[in-house]
Design a protein that fits this description.
It is a single chain. By secondary structure, this protein is an alpha+beta fold. The protein has 3 domains: 129 residues, Acyl-CoA dehydrogenase/oxidase, N-terminal domain (Butyryl-Coa Dehydrogenase, subunit A, domain 1, Orthogonal Bundle), CATH 1.10.540; 101 residues, Butyryl-CoA Dehydrogenase, subunit A, domain 2 (Beta Barrel); 157 residues, Butyryl-CoA Dehydrogenase, subunit A, domain 3 (Up-down Bundle), CATH 1.20.140.10. 52% of the residues lie in helices and 14% in strands. The protein contains 11 helices and 10 strands. A hairpin with a 7-residue loop joins strand 4 and strand 5. The chain is globular. The structure holds flavin-adenine dinucleotide.
Amino acid sequence: MLEQDEFMTLSKMDFDVSEEQKLILDQVDRACSQIRPIEEKCYLERRRNDQVGPVFAKAHMLGLPISRRFGDGQVADMVTYALAIERIGREGTGVRTFFSVHIALCQLTVQQWGNEEQKQRILTPATKGERLLAFGLTEPGAGSDPASLTSFFEEKEGRYVLSGQKTWISNGSIADSALVFAYPKGKRDGMCAFVVDRDSAGYSAKPIENKLGLPTADTATIYMDKVEVPKENLLGPRGKGLSVAYYGLMSGRLSVAAGCVGVIQDCLDEAVRYAGVRQQHGRKIGRHQLIQRHIGIISTNLEASKWLLLKAAHVKQKYEERPTDMGLREEADLAITKAKYFAANASFDAANRAVQVFGANGYSYENRPARHLADTRVTTIYEGTNEILEQKIAVGALGKDFEAYS
Ligand SMILES: Cc1cc2nc3c(=O)[nH]c(=O)nc-3n(C[C@H](O)[C@H](O)[C@H](O)COP(=O)(O)OP(=O)(O)OC[C@H]3O[C@@H](n4cnc5c(N)ncnc54)[C@H](O)[C@@H]3O)c2cc1C
């Protein structure tokens, strides 16, 4: 039987697309059509696609869920935002990762935790693509356990001085500013979040080469050697850095889930198209039952992922409207975790099956399934590995007494 709360959530979910949402989604669709040939060319040449920002900025899509008070903010609700990112996800995980970082991990976090001056200063240019953002939490020795990071800051003449290294940072070498997390020197608590500008002395970034996938997206290591950060760049209250980071990750995971739904959709479209034209043993391969099995599984996982995504976006929207409601926060966190976990795994499975449907042609980056297979592999690693999310989901069922770590 449904719990009362669960029933209330389900009964209020309405996913009819309004005229306003349709305008946004049409705009996103047009920008996606524009980026597709550029992305394909960059992929085959294995170089960064530097047109993602400009194309989507021109379409006014770089501040989708941000308030209209800031630059190009479109004040899209979380469901519209998720549908937009899903559409972008079809263009590839490299394209979508740019959005997850620039908008979800960074802009939404600044909107939630920043003061008015910071929001004006950071969000106004960021929503127009004039200031690109990165999110620097991971370090060489701190991944799944961000609380173990070793970057640190000291205070000197009214400024913070930051030292440390952040690695595997998406947009890391192209971002004008990065949200970074560090402890006070010599301490293992009181983490703080800062906005650090690329042109600060002692700050440098180096792209990571030879990645398994995402050749069109930037991933970098950031080095901070006594970087001076003005007081006004502390983001959120002192000592609340981990809460700032976790808020960012919640938004980021929703965005990853949405992108993965897009990947599954594209794999389904490609598999159906190919199975409808390729002939073997005197018939279209779509008539062979074992090919139908691949398509049936992708199609079912698409629908399951999409429902999990829509529910997660719906609950996140409720939380955005009542940010002090900790019950809602937990509900949103769990729903988003499930959606990200399921959609990420389903997207890799869908890409793998689409490659199989294509046979040898699926083994070439000339075709979309191969690119999805290489790229979506990261989605079970970043923004919470499968193993970490499985534990979060289990604790959601078992209760907090079973939490291994906070
Ligand atoms: C392409 C790419 C882009 C990225 N972008 C960003 C970014 O923009 N910003 C950012 O901050 N980070 C980013 N990351 C880093 C990413 O978030 C981390 O890789 C992730 O958190 C995992 O950390 P790790 O790689 O250090 O793995 P580890 O934490 O070392 O984990 C290794 C393995 O051990 C498992 N494991 C760890 N702890 C436990 C446990 N308690 N129980 C069970 N299993 C466990 C993990 O699940 C994993 O399978 C990116 C990574 C990649 C690959």
